[in-house]
């Protein structure tokens, strides 16, 4: 069980005791050892903390209304797969520091729904080789972080031509980023970003390529933003992606900027 010591009237000071775990911390002149707080003239009250709170502290945010006190702690860590989310709790206390309410009652569950992500990378001549290699490293890190979740990836590179490095079906067969990325070499040439987006929508987000109807569809475009020689405009391609329910993100590389 975790317990939190709240001191008054100088404000809430949070602390934390995990069963069998000796902990001592000092906050603003208060000595706190397990569930004991020593400070002259300061009252103390214990709260049963939420079971999913880890290393939680209170008192970084306090508000009073009438005789009630709201003590909040933003440091509840929640592990979802390999990602760590920083969330928080607030406790509404009465004038005797009794807990009236915990907000929220419980933390939201980790996202479990299926997600299909197309990574669309700019391999045109305006991207320096060193930046292209950084892109590949970035892709590898993204894929590794989502490996334990229900997420599928597909990768297309574009310049004035287009290369599908792997689709969702191929990703399902081999989820090893290093193996999937080892044969990705920079295409070089012009920068047909809008045409590439349209191609992804029409050809990669399809069941034949392993995309799932129930999945959230995400397109991440990584480019220096300098579209060139493209017969298609963003106003043609982006609405088509939106109509297909695809959420689009753009990530800028090098010194360029993303137009849309
Ligand atoms: Mg370019």
TrEMBL record:
Please name the SMART domains in this protein's record: VWA
Q: Which residues form the VWFA domain?
A: 116-260
The name of this protein is VWFA domain-containing protein
Species: Chelonoidis abingdonii (Abingdon island giant tortoise)
């Amino acid at each position: 069980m975790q317990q939190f010591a709240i001191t008054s009237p100088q404000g809430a000071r949070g602390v934390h005791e995990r069963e069998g775990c000796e902990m001592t911390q000092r906050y603003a002149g208060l000595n706190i050892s397990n569930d004991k707080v020593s400070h002259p003239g300061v009252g103390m009250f214990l709260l049963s903390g939420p079971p999913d709170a880890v290393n939680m502290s209170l008192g970084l945010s306090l508000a009073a209304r009438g005789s009630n006190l709201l003590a909040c702690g933003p440091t509840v860590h929640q592990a979802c797969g390999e990602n760590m989310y920083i969330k928080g709790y607030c406790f509404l206390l009465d004038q005797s520091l009794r807990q009236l309410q915990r907000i929220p009652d419980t933390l939201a569950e980790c996202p479990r729904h299926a997600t299909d992500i197309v990574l669309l990378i700019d391999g045109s001549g305006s991207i320096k080789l060193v930046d292209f290699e950084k892109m590949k490293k970035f892709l590898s890190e993204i894929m590794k972080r989502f490996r334990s979740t229900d997420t599928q990836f597909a990768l297309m590179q574009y310049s004035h031509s287009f290369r599908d490095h792997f689709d969702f079906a191929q990703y399902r067969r081999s989820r090893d980023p290093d193996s999937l990325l080892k044969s990705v070499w920079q295409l070089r040439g012009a920068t047909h970003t809008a045409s590439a987006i349209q191609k992804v929508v029409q050809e990669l987000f399809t069941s034949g390529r392993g995309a799932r109807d129930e999945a959230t569809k995400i397109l991440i475009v990584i480019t220096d933003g300098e579209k060139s020689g493209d017969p298609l405009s963003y106003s043609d391609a982006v609405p088509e992606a939106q109509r297909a329910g695809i959420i689009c993100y753009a990530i800028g590389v090098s010194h360029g900027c993303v137009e849309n």
